[in-house]
């Protein structure tokens, strides 16, 4: 526990120091060159935005699962994904395949964040195409997000869910996020009684989330703080994630 706490403190301060330093540099530049102050202040605001995003993610991580949530929503996963895709810029071609009425119970904002984080990652790492599936799989809803970029090697498939974990260490600290997205995704999934796996894509990589469908959730609440009672741990994933029904093409 102590070691984990130390690691967390070290990682968090490292991530926070970068945008703080950027704010300082920009403000100093504005003082030195008042004529260019506008540009420097824009830079400072951008760095402040990154700082705010990290603080908000850390707060969210502390909150997920720790506060009993009385009001729960019935969330149509297919609609949630479609709403999210509508707001995207279309940087990548996005394919979506979905069954009708794939409904889970839980927190709409948290499930929305889950979808956003997986899509952000997939778009960032895709070579050309992101592929999203929303399916019914027995008593489970299945949301899978794949992209055709570099695969994630088997030895990294667990640690990418750690706080502040980023595989592409060479990437500039200004590019991409602090490495909190998948940690949040996993906590959201687990708080909803589900699980998440990383698989080989075809090509690339695929993140597969399974959540209990509304009809399969037992009514007894287990443990304070769970968004939903934890359903029995699902069997390991086997077989391809495929199905029929509708396929919609979004973005370019
Ligand atoms: N679809 C993907 N393809 C390849 N690698 C991925 C993919 N998604 C995540 N990763 C790897 O896992 C790491 C952790 O992902 P995570 O979403 O937690 O952090 P991030 O995207 O770097 O930052 P943040 O999500 O906080 O903005 C990434 O830095 C990347 O190396
Ligand atoms: Mg991310």
UniProtKB/TrEMBL annotation:
Domain of life: Bacteria
Enzyme Commission number(s) from the entry: 2.7.13.3
Organism of this sequence: Planotetraspora thailandica
Top-level class of the enzyme under EC nomenclature: transferase
Main location: membrane
Catalysis: reaction(s): ATP + protein L-histidine = ADP + protein N-phospho-L-histidine
Pfam families: HATPase_c, HisKA
SMART domains listed in its UniProt record: HATPase_c, HisKA
Designated name of the protein: histidine kinase
One GO location term (cellular component): plasma membrane
